[in-house]
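User: quick one - fold this with zinc ion bound?
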Amino acid sequence: MHWAERIADELIAENPDKEEFVCAAGTSPSGSVHIGNFRDIATPYFVVKALRNKGKKAKLMLSWDDFDRLRKVPKNVAAIAPDFDKYIGMPYCMIPDPYGKYSSFAEYNEKEYEKSLEELGIDIEYRYQGKEYVSGRYIDGIIRSMHKRKEIYDILMKYKTQDSDEGERETYYPVSVYCSRCKKDFTEILSYDEEKEEITYRCKACGNEETVSLRDYHLVKLMWKIDWPMRWGVENVDFEPGGIDHAAASGSYVVAKDVAKEIFGVKAPKFQPYGWLSIAGLGDMHSSTGNNITPATVLEVYEPEMVRWLFAKYAPTDGFAFNFDDTIIRHYSEFDKGLEAVKNGEADEYNVSVYKLCMLNGLEAKGKVPFGVLASVATIVDFNPQSVREILAKINVDFDERDEERLERVKNWITKHQPSKMYRLLTERNDGYYAELGEEEREVIGKLRDFIANNASFDEKTIQSYLYDIINKPELSKKENTARQQKFFAVFYNVLFGTDKGPRLYLFLSAIDKSKYMHLLDF
Ligand SMILES: [Zn+2]
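Assistant: Sure. Structure tokens for the protein plus zinc ion:
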């Protein structure tokens, strides 16, 4: 059974009468959101889909934790705004956007991610914690936590190695206060008047000291392990995943679960830990910029359905990687083959579920020409869709409008990540290279030129068998002949492109108008 269906079944069994299931995720807009964070959304998203497939009402909710404080300036922000560290201690939603596009730093990062979520076809309800806190929506939870602060302290201490301390317990407050003057949280609470529900705080950053009523002053935030369970109650959350670290014996979830029960009288949602995914095959230039690999970066080369497919295919605790090297060709090919198998009724139950969950438009794929085939021909015609269509028609591959989007991704992949695969025909004969060649190589080039000159047109198979005829030697072993083929192909590539590697040679020779390259073979 698919993992999302199993979780959905368990949720239904635990709450058979629940009218609408709420599956939640939470992300901090501390910078550009990394693709790895998408697992926090993909996991409940597929559970929501599975619940709906079982006839239940369910919704997905993302909490933007933009009332959290800025801890650290991301590298790419520091590069454009060197004094950005002056905002450390302020909530993300009150810090200006360093790019000047949005009302806040939080909003910039949120909108960037939300745009990708839309492209990924995720229907989701957003909660912006800055707005929620400032509106006073959580005031009852805050006051309740202040009243029960000593009980909260005891719960927290249960999970700590050090012993509790009576003095510390007396002055423990489960909130952080943002200063009304400088909006930073470098504050300390001097006292709390339980009856009046007033706190007196002092700001260590600007010296401001004041007494405020919690009912009126909304720049007060619950500590994470209290905030999280408080919101479970407010939003009626049934399911929420979290990084594996949250699930550890003294991790946030375990503590929050206790707080939910003891302080708020709320049952903690079902929790699913997830593992991190990795990014492979990116060049050094990416690691030096300090830019996160965002869903947008991934979507430049992976189709939305494929991103969804990888997250649906691997169970939340399994690792996997997005690849920016040749492995991407294998990913595309596996995706295409899997889809074919589902359409033909040849896939197993698990894969049928995976495709049911990941496809955006029934079983209709975006593109169907293999990514690898496009990659091997598109560079020689500079990714021009019309030319690609003509080339592929010659080898009986039908390229239609839907494939143009896939071609665009091939272009992004090669130009942004694999520039060494950008093959262009030389403009002039490679005389310098030819001069270094031996007799045998020159002879083979001559034979190829004659064959092409004497045949008005030929297909891929014909040129393939002709090349084998002139390269292979019957007395040699298969292995030795393969080595000869590799050697001579490199010769052809050098003569045509000035490189040791090139596009699919038979396809290139048969599909491209020969007037474009004949002169390069004519020594
Ligand atoms: Zn201050």
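One thing worth noting: The first strand starts at residue 20 and ends at 27.
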